Each structure stands twice: as C-alpha cells, then as structure tokens.
Amino acid sequence: MDSYFELCRRWCKPILLHLAFFFAFTQFSTAQDFDVTAQANENGALEVKWYTKHQNQRFRIILKNQETQKETRHIILNSGKFVLDKYDPLTDYQITVENLGNDDKVLRAGSEKFLGRVTLQNYAQQFAAKANPNTINANLQVVMRALNAQSFPFIYSTIDVSDGVAGVDNLSVANFKAYEDGARQTNHFNVTPAGTGGGTRILDMIFIIDDSGSMGDEQQAVINNVNNFVDQLVIRNINFRLGLVRFGQNANSGNPILMNNGNMTDDVELFKQILSTFQAAGGTEPGIQAVYDAATSFSFRPGSQRHFLLITDEDSDGGDLTATINVCNNNGIIVHSATLCTSGSSQTDYCDSNSIRGQTGGIQKSVIGPYDDILDAILKDVASSYIVSYRTINDVATSGLREVKINVDALGQNKNVIGYYGFGWPIITLTNRTINLSKTGQLQNTAVLIQVKVTDSSQPFVQSVLCYYRQTGTSSWSSLTMVHVGNNIYEATIPAYAVVEPGMDYYIRATDGQTTSTYPEQDPSIYPVQFAVLPNQPPAISHTPVLTTAQNTAVSI
After folding, report:
1. Burial letters 354-390, b for 16+ CB under 10 A, else e
2. Structural domains in the chain, sorted by start
3. Per-residue pLDDT tens for 129-156?
4. What is the secondary structure of 483-535 as a DSSP string?
5. pTM
6. Which residues of the chain have pLDDT under 50?
7. What percentage of residues in the chain have a pLDDT greater than 90?
8. First-to-last CA distance in the chain?
C-alpha cells in the first residue's frame, strides 16, 4: 500500500482537489472569508496556514477529528501559521480558522479539509483502478442535464455519461439514439462528443455582481479576478458568450440592471469596458432577484452549457428563492456563488445545500476570488457532456408535452434517459410586410413600421415585446415597446428622425416572464436584421438554384 500512498500524495490528491466535485469530500467545502491550507510538513507535523488582510490578528484554530468528532481548539496571536506535532496522521480533520474580535465574536473564518493516510490510500486505489479499467465493474450512468426546444423544430439535449466513477468521454454518434414520443429521430441527428476541442463547445456565462456600497473595498479585486477568468476562457479556446448583471446600485434603487441591453457578447474588450464602469454605491442587494432576472431575460443559445457566477458580500434583499431555483433548473443553469456566508440569511440564500447554489449544483467561493475552482468546474462541464441534437419529424407545434428519450449504448450496457418539452415560450416571426423592408431602400426621415407575430402556446403568456433599433454602423441601441394590435401581431414605429442612411439595424426581444426569445435567435445585437435607407440600396443577388446533384459530388454555387 505504500506505493499507492506515495502515488496519491504526489498525483492523486492534487487532481482530486482540483476536481473536487468528483468526490464525496466536497461536502466539507465551506464559504471562505480567507484562504486556509493544511498539510503535513517535512517533519511530519500538521501545518496550517492562512492569509487575511484585516488588522485584527487574534485567531482560533478548531481541529475536528472526522472519525471521533472530537474537537480541539487553539488560540494564536499575530501569526498566520499554526503547527501541531501531535495528531493522528491516519485520520481526516476538518480545520476551521476563525478571526476573533475583542469580545471573542467571530469576524470572519476560513476552512480546509486535511486528508489522512487512510483516505489517501482509498483514493490511490481508485486512481490505480481507473488507470486499469478492467479491474472495476463499470456501472453506466446517464443523466439528461438540459433539454432545449427553443430552436424548434431542432431539439438539443445535454447528456452526461459516466461509469459510476468518472465521465466517459470516448463515445461517438454510434453510441446514441434519440426518440420523440416513441418515434426514432434520424433527421439531422448529431452528437457533439465530450472529447471534442473546447472551441466547438458552447458556454453561455453570466456574471451577476453586487456593486452596492459595501463592495467598495472588494470591487477592484473582483473586477481583476473576473477579467482573469474571462482571459482564461479565451486561452482555453471555449466558444463562449458573456453576460453581465449588476445590482445594488443607487441608479436603479438597487434593482438588477442587465448590461448591454440584456445581450450576451463574445467581445471580451467590450465586456471588460462595461465591467470597468461599475462603481460601488447603494445599500439594497436583491441577489436572488438578480439571478431570476438573468435566467428569464437572457436568450441562451441552443445546446449551450449555462453557468452563472453570483458575487456579493451581503444576503439577499427579497426575491423568491423557490421560483428562482425552479427557473434555473428548468433552463439547465448552474449558479456558482462567491459570497460572504456569514452575512444575514446568506447561508439560506447562497451557501447551504438548499440555496440557489446548492440546488443548481454550483461551487462556493470567497467574494473576491480568485475563481479558479469555478473555472475548472465549468471547463470540465463543457468538456465532459455530449450534446445530442436532431430535427423532429413532427415539425408542427402542438399543445401538450412531448417525450424525448435518449438511448446510450456503452460499456457493454444500454440505458435510457427521458425528458419532456412543450411550447411554452414566445416564438417570434416577422410578417411579410416587415420582411419586405429589407428588399428595397426606405425613404430617409420617414417613419418605418416594424410588425411581428409573437405566439406563446401555454401559460405564462407573452408579457412584453421590445424592438431595439439603431443606425447601421453605430453602437448605441434605442428601444420601443411594441403594441399588441390583435391576432398575436405586435407593432412599433421607428421615428422618422432616426431613419437615416446608410440604413437601420433592428432586433426583437419578447418575454413571458419565464423565458426570453429574440429575433434573430442568436446574437441579435451582433447580427441584427437590416434595411437600407435611400439613396443606399440593398445588394442585388442573382442566383440559379441547384435542383439536383450526385451524392459525394462538389457543388458550385
């Protein structure tokens, strides 16, 4: 067993800690006001270190033997290190470091799990067995993480496959089948493998940041670590879109503000520029409501992995926690929290197993970060799931739910996972009148009517429809509330003074309070609908359609 132990000390433990969510000891992860490390030093003693920038330097170290549940406590003054010679190296310890005030009140705390030799040997054996799969009895496990039909008739599902110990990342399209209401689906059937490079995987990432007055001391560190997080996404070649929500600001009475008109962007410099405008001021922090607004107001890409990072040093002022958990889970959103868990009801709101983090499967970190563990978890999530997609043969929207069954044949086993979708979201289409605007140049300084049809087959029904517009080549958008004129038709008029050459860009956003849709569907603020303004004219395209061709033969267009 010594070889196993030495192997795990050098390789297994760092890997396991780096991917902490893989193993059961993640239950010991707690909110961190400051970082704590614990390890056996070169003399075999247990050495605990911590760092805090605060001036009060009176600390209480609590060591809890995980086998006997016995606690020992030690007081340390003016030091960031504690060394214990007498301890049981075979046993796991939960170690908590508390920064104490003059009245012994806990001002802040940090925690760490020290793994004893027995645990390390167990993990070493698992590690060695995993390196030789023939020594374990694989148990095929299949989970449907998300099912998305907003690109109907194209259906997307996110499927996790594991062997009971770790993810299985070597499957191909041949290992999967899809059924809808019992009928096999083969039209445009595709599987994006887990082992595919990062650039082909899709991540929609929303940062939800408290910029109230209490964040003043922490704000620059938060901005720096968020920027570093984003830079790492670029380096890792992830196909990402970034969204930004702020709350707590005096400017909106603390209520959430969706930056960039609630549009995600792949422009890192634009994202950083918007983030740099945050200024800490205000005293109301509706964090739960901010998560809800982000989940219901952003339009996510089909097949994307969806992660939120909520950053706040206060508990939530208001918001419906149950409704927010439900809307996140229904949309396949994982909420990570970088929060101060000792603030008010933060444990319930953000930190414990029943919080928005706990119920969506997120990771807990300190307010200012760094957020490396969250980044690693997201990258693992993006890289370890399969995206199964198809075009349904029943391509007419109907009432009621449809059953989607994904069949996985792997590891000598065959298992199914089932999900359901309906048509409970706004579906936006342009009327012929509006489509024709793009076919010819429009008169300058003449008002233009934008008309769309928005349908929603189940409650909650459409609550609002907005038209965003701008002059082509400019960056700022204006918005108009579209009016329902009957038969699911909504209208808004771009004012005459705004209609100028060379042309106009516009896009539509509709919400039912649970889901938001846009037209165009993806990146509407980047690739909007356009029409020319005279004397500019749209380009004339001449094309002879190719009606037939031989299979496996190049076609010239």
Report:
1. ebbbbbbbbbbbbbbbbbebbbbbbbebbbbbbbbbb
2. 2-133 (2.60.40.10), 141-195+385-421 (2.60.40), 199-384 (3.40.50.410), 427-532 (2.60.40.10)
3. 444 444 445 688 898 888 888 888 999 9
4. EEEETTEEEEEE-GGG--TTEEEEEEEEE-SS-EEEESSS-TTTS-EEEEBTT
5. 0.63
6. 1-31, 127-136, 197-199
7. 36
8. 67
